[in-house]
Amino acid sequence: xxxxxxxxxxxxxxxxxxxxxxxxxxxxxxxxxxxxxxxxxxxxxxxxxxxxxxxxxxxxxxxxxxxxxxxxxxxxxxxxxxxxxxxxxxxxxxxxxxxxxxxxxxxxxxxxxxxxxxxxxxxxxxxxxxxxxxxxxxxxxxxxxxxxxxxxxxxxxxxxxxxxxxxxxxxxxxxxxxxxxxxxxxxxxxxxxxxxxxxxxxxxxxxxxxxxxxxxxxxxxxxxxxxxxxxxxxxxxxxxxxxxxxxxxxxxxxxxxxxxxxxxxxxxxxxxxxxxxxxxxxxxxxxxxxxxxxxxxxxxxxxxxxxxxxxxxxxxxxxxxxxxxxxxxxxxxxxxxxxxxxxxxxxxxxxxxxxxxxxxxxxxxxxxxxxxxxxxxxxxxxxxxxxxxxxxxxxxxxxxxxxxxxxxxxxxxxxxxxxxxxxxxxxxxxxxxxxxxxxxxxxxxxxxxxxxxxxxxxxxxxxxxxxxxxxxxxxxxxxxxxxxxxxxxxxxxxxxxxxxxxxxxxxxxxxxxxxxxxxxxxxxxxxxxxxxxxxxxxxxxxxxxxxxxxxxxxxxxxxxxxxxxxxxxxxxxxxxxxxxxxxxxxxxxxxxxxxxxxxxxxxxxxxxxxxxxxxxxxxxxxxxxxxxxxxxxxxxxxxxxxxxxxxxxxxxxxxxxxxxxxxxxxxxxxxxxxxxxxxxxxxxxxxxxxxxxxxxxxxxxxxxxxxxxxxxxxxxxxxxxxxxxxxxxxxxxxxxxxxxxxxxxxxxxxxxxxxxxxxxxxxxxxxx
Length: 768
Fold this sequence. Notes:
By secondary structure, the protein is mostly beta strands. The protein folds into five domains: 23-190, Galactose-binding domain-like (Jelly Rolls, Sandwich), CATH 2.60.120.260; 195-292, Immunoglobulins (Immunoglobulin-like, Sandwich), CATH 2.60.40; 306-386, Immunoglobulins (Immunoglobulin-like, Sandwich), CATH 2.60.40.10; 396-683, Aldolase class I (TIM Barrel, Alpha-Beta Barrel), CATH 3.20.20.70; 686-766, Golgi alpha-mannosidase II (Immunoglobulin-like), CATH 2.60.40.1180. Helix 8 (633-645) crosses helix 10 (670-676). It is globular.
């Protein structure tokens, strides 16, 4: 879990884009993108305007410092920039309310100085004479994703008009990436549009029987200025261009008040682009926004019983076994099973299979589920075998705390996630792992990690009863995961497992842990080099420790694809391994990560999976301040479709207590999840690339193929798929997996309309 190298809803805000067009006298914007210098040292004298930085390195602010020659730099680094701030910037401005200094995003913690005087800390403006905290390493890790925007009064004595000014930024980084990194810093005067905010950006659309509804709300955040103008809102069908809604309001938005416009759209099976434009009565300035609407494709499951989830599962002889049969249908449901392995039994009220089986073998278990409306039967293969590959026979389906809570995770949040799996029905579709990421351990200190007198790893005050928590998760038929590092400290600076691997594995077993994410983090300072033996060494050691305990623990190697881990991850006993750096909730991140999973395809299979990182749908934010994902609805359909085709572990990263209609629908399509959980375990590969279209094909256990037709372009595409190129020489039966609808038989060609950044996911079976 490195901290993010990039940054940029669910549909909740879908993609929010703000732009400002200004009258001529307001056009001056001074970019702060070039001329920076850098030092990896830490002295407060670096803030002084008269400090001689001529020997410092010229430095870029559009990439992290690890990508500029400081790969192992943790701690402090300083940036300095010299510039003249012309008085004409103020004199020619339409408003003279303040000077806006924008530094982009900074990873992780920062203090900003203007001419030797502190003016900002982590995006918060501070008073002129605020004392300097010489050590600010206790700031929160999640600040990496916060924009640093500061507005200083034009007469602030820290500003030297028509003279050289020095901006100095002191950055502290702890683990992972660091520094200024978005490359969009700028300086300008405040503009009218800065006083408007789209207050409804984090409010979900509401689905009723006929309409999709939302109130578009703008708020005047100024405490003194009224904003008079005209708001225009229009919704356009993203695929065919049809105008679905159009309305204009004239209004005066008084200080700290709101302007509201109800929006109601017909329910359709594709997205609309909603765009708004507030034109100010004075001058030419205007405030614009846009978002894309959600649309639901997955049909409601029937009231009759239906068994879902993986069709194969495994465990090792003599180890505790837990598997909950996933089933939908009107409650109550009654479960039964025949031909269970010796030592295992099923709870007929819950469908939870548990116990210990000492008899190795493959068991074709027949599962029955019934209610007042009917009955359903399906086979479940239970493999009791030896070795690490005997577990995780399909990619893990679950949830991880990091992408929503970051280091703000606690025991109550974990239990709430587990309950949501049951209450929201995710467990009924096969989702089963509830994973605690970094932040559960005792914080390390300057000498190093903290442990008990006996050397046991300790939980912190946020997790008063980890064993009790695991028991409660298991009682729900779910499994629980945890996080550590082969280094002395985790990425967040908490105690990790270096030197205590066997002792920590015993602790995991005693607590009842089912999954371990083992994150490289501080081991980078222990490894002698980046050779394959050095990369393998810590993961082999923890594998030995896990083999020595009386428990099956799925083993996740988190080291970002170094040394082509897919080539050796299985040989060191991994069940899955990260193939890439951290994902975030932007189209660029999802696209770059997802569509690059090609070279590793031959190394995926039952018991060992390529992991392109967690899902970024729903409310995310890396804790504790969350926001709806910045992915549009179409991008989210692409995200889930592609990860399923890749046979990737699917780990939800959102706040499960804020699940909305769209996100829940996105995560509970059993036919899409079945592609990910297909027991053959083949990873999809790209077979066609034509302009903005990519076609990925995944072979399935029953001889069929799952096919994703992806449109990476900016416009809707009508694409004719050559079925011969995907291996279908005769007639083929096609099924739309998201809509769970048969499309008919086709020979030669199949034509699909694919929205921008969207997907057509189909199942293809060649007629015999």
